Amino acid sequence: MNSMARSSRPPPPPKRPSKKLVDREALESVLETLVEDPHEREFIARCIAREGPPHHQAASYALLRLLAEVSRRMGAVASPASRGKRTRVHVAPHHARDDDDEREFSLALPEGALARIEPDPKRRAAFEDALLDGPTHHALANVAMVALIEAILVELDRRGER
Amino acid sequence: MSAASSNGPSPIVDSFFAAAQELGMWTASRLYLREMTREGGAPAIEAARELLGQRFPIFDAAASEWLESDGASSIDIPAALRALEGVARLLVVGVDVDPLDALVDGVDPATRIGLVAGVGELSGDLSRVLANYQGRVALVGLADVPRWIGRKSALATVVYGVDSNDMAYTSLAWLRVLGPDTRTQFRTLLGINVLERSPSIHPRWVVATPADDFSALV
């Protein structure tokens, strides 16, 4: 086979991450200070690490583990947001129920996080909606990442670093 | 419908089939095994396996375990109830009455309980099944499953053994309910395994699904 034929061959596709790549218990540890209820924490970890496309599972897992490592080294502790928008359990509008509180995951977007980059409330709300929209695994990973980043930034604020 | 019609009349086959339609395969098996133990002990059970085993592999597997364990069951209801702690809505998928009874008795009285059954599976007169629960358990159609979702909601079903390839045998209804959407809509996906080993005869009344599809398999 000549070199022309080799160069025209399409590159191999990336390997599909295996389920063993992601350690759900390690992800539960990352979420430990963010979600108080252990059953709900396990649920959120499962949604991020086991549901959705495998490359999203692996990518979200890697990013959250790295952010948690930065937090740990800095002594930053992410805590549950007492206020702030939450990821909703996706459901068609005609299946709405009165007790819609249960249709929200126990993981909220820290209210002040996006104010650091966007002072205008309407534009900030649009960013929040973008982070919370889309497939459940994606939205939950977004919120968890913002919560960890906010904890790091709070720690930097405390140290007076600008 | 007669389960025995193709090979001539066989009262025990038809009576077991009728019982399994309303009680579920495992509960009906245990009921028959209790009666056979009283009537004739192990020889009676072995004789029944000859008549029923090929047609009803879950009976065959339950009989094998019954003989080995002297009637003890490996079902772990306390572990199932631990997995369901804090659940406000419990949707049981598929009929097998003994595990369902245990869940109804064991969960918090405030927990709402629904039953999804008769979805392409073996099921008898569900009104007779539900009458035993005096309004505690509501029949839920497939179209109404989304009304039960939430972060304090759980799905539960019976698993009839897990094979060497980590495939769990469960009801057809479970596969109709469980999809990529429901997996992120229910906090807990519970499988209650009633058999220590998977049936040695292929259990064609039920279906296989990866065991790790369950968030808890007890």
What do you see in this structure?
The complex is a heterodimer of chains A (162) and B (218). Chain A is mainly alpha-helical. Chain A has one domain. Helix content of chain A is 51%, strand content 5%. A two-stranded antiparallel ribbon of chain A has the order 1-2. In chain A, α2 packs across α3, α3 crosses α6 and α4 packs parallel to α6. The N and C termini of chain A lie far apart (59 Å). The mean pLDDT of chain A is 89. Chain B folds into two domains: 61 residues, no CATH class; 141 residues, 3-Layer(aba) Sandwich (Rossmann fold). In chain B, α6 links the parallel β2 and β3. With 218 residues, chain B is α/β, with parallel strands linked by helices. In chain B, strands 1, 2, 3, 4, 5, 6, 7 and 8 form an eight-stranded mixed β-sheet that branches. In chain B, 40% of the residues lie in helices and 20% in strands. The radius of gyration of chain B is 17 Å and the shape is globular. The chains are: A mainly alpha (162), B alpha/beta (218). Chains A and B meet through α3 and β2 of A and β4 and α8 of B.
What is the CATH H-level superfamily of the largest domain in chain B?
Translation initiation factor eif-2b, domain 2
Strand order within the widest beta sheet of chain A: 1-2
- The radius of gyration computed from the alpha-carbon positions of chain A, rounded to a whole number of angstroms, is 19 Å
The level-1 CATH class of the largest domain in chain B: Alpha Beta
DSSP strand content of chain A: under 5%
The averaged pLDDT of chain B comes out at 91
Q: Report the helical percentage of chain A.
A: 40-55%
Instruction: Identify low-pLDDT runs of chain B.
Output: 1-6
**What's the order of the H and E elements of chain B?**
HHHHEHEHEEEHHEEE
What structural class do you assign from the helix and strand content of chain A? mainly alpha
User: What structural class do helix, strand and pairing data of chain B support?
Assistant: alpha/beta
Strand content of chain B: 15-25%
* Ends apart, CA distance between termini of chain B: 34 Å
SSE pattern of chain A: HHHHEEHH
User: Helix proportion of residues of chain B, in percent?
Assistant: 25-40%
Count of individual beta strands of chain B: 8
Count the domains of chain A: 1
Main β-sheet description of chain A:
2 strands, antiparallel
Number of helices of chain B: 8
How many domains would you count in the coordinates of chain B? 2
Task: Describe the sheet with the most strands of chain B.
Answer: 8 strands, mixed
